[in-house]
Amino acid sequence: MKIRAALLEAMGAPLPYAQSRPLKIEELDLDPPGPGEILVKIKAAGLCHSDLSTINADRPRPMPMVLGHEAAGVVEQLGDGVTDLVVGDHVVLVFVPSCGHCPSCAEGRPALCEPGAAANVSGKLLLGTQRLRRNGQPVNHHLGCSAFATHATVSRRSVVRITRDLPFDEAALFGCAVLTGVGAVVNTAQVRAGATVAVVGLGGVGLASVLGAVAAGARQVIAVDLSEDKLALAKKLGATHTFNAGATDAIEAIRQASSGGVEYAIEMAGSVRAFELAYKITRRGGMTVTAGLPNPSSLWSMAPVQLVAEERTIKGSYVGTCVPSRDVPRYIDLYMQGRLPVDRLKTGTLALEDINRGFDLLHEGKAVRQVVVF
């Protein structure tokens, strides 16, 4: 079938993207789903820093590629062997497909699925297929989704069925921002009621972590960012304290406010400086969690003796250490009960044709979560 999609020909285009237009809206061919795959009509797709990091070459991927990985839509066709979905089901796309049988999946850690990771790096779907074509030549898939398009053929393992009561432009956020941000708090850090938490970096994922810390019952939720507007939003979302990371005394001020440092510091900015700040505001015996994705060449140095003498923990968090089939419905239920106000992360909606300008706003820190609506 013919689809319209945002195609990235090459990484590293100059800013502003509204002028260089790295994403071209083109007509492509999409093959029908094969065994274990489904065809989804995309209804909404969020703009995320993981897309931006492919555009600017911080996260190299094979080109050309249709971007987009945070999305929701409707099942239109089922491939052979897919028996647990029906046409018309509403689904959220998840950007790490899980095979269900590799060592990580067998341990209950589908976010670390080895075949899923290999497929994502190679620009293919879980079983090694490519369903996108342009003039007969294959086009790569982004994280098994390629959701900046009117339709997507994806692995059954890349979607979670959801209630039909949730608007698509809100449902899309649960596939990445909420899954990663809330999951880093409740799954990776396992924050307990009454704990002290700091979130460093207040993009869509970081603000979702603020929501997660509030929902978990943290008694202190400290929000840290360079943007006063985002700090103000974090306060409205339940943060008890806010600090501008650019202040010369930011670290000492945060440590004072938290009586020597927080028990859990969650870094979501994707920069070494932000991670260093998060580490320095973590108390003795505390945990520093990072879900930011800086350029792979970025390095961080530390004195290992501090880990021993202070019994520190450093943990990475990918996709919020989630089990998508478990966590997406849970978080949606919390949202619909009013306990996880995810809709307040939305900056606005836009058409597919305006996507380059949308990434300018994301790069400039002027948007939290913009959603392409089809």
**Number of separate domains:** 2
> Any idea what the radius of gyration is?
20 Å
Q: CATH topology of the largest domain, which one?
A: Quinone Oxidoreductase, Chain A, domain 1
How many helical elements?
A: 13
**What is the name of the CATH architecture of the largest domain?**
Alpha-Beta Complex
Helix percentage: 25-40%
Share of residues in strands: 25-35%
Low-pLDDT stretches:
none
Alpha carbon gap, first and last residue: 17 Å
User: CATH class of the largest domain, please?
Assistant: Alpha Beta
CATH superfamily of the largest domain: Medium-chain alcohol dehydrogenases, catalytic domain
How many beta strands in the DSSP annotation?
Answer: 18
How would you characterize the largest beta sheet? Answer: 7 strands, mixed
What's the overall average pLDDT, rounded?
A: 97
Provide key terms for this protein.
6-stranded parallel beta sheet; 7-stranded mixed beta sheet; 2 domains; Rossmann fold; 374 residues; alpha/beta; 13 helices; single chain
Please give a structural write-up:
The protein has 13 helices and 18 strands. Strand 14, helix 10 and strand 15 form a beta-alpha-beta unit. The relative contact order is 0.16. It has 2 domains: 207 residues, Medium-chain alcohol dehydrogenases, catalytic domain (Quinone Oxidoreductase, Chain A, domain 1); 137 residues, 3-Layer(aba) Sandwich (Rossmann fold). The two termini are 17 Å apart. The chain has 374 residues and is an alpha/beta fold.
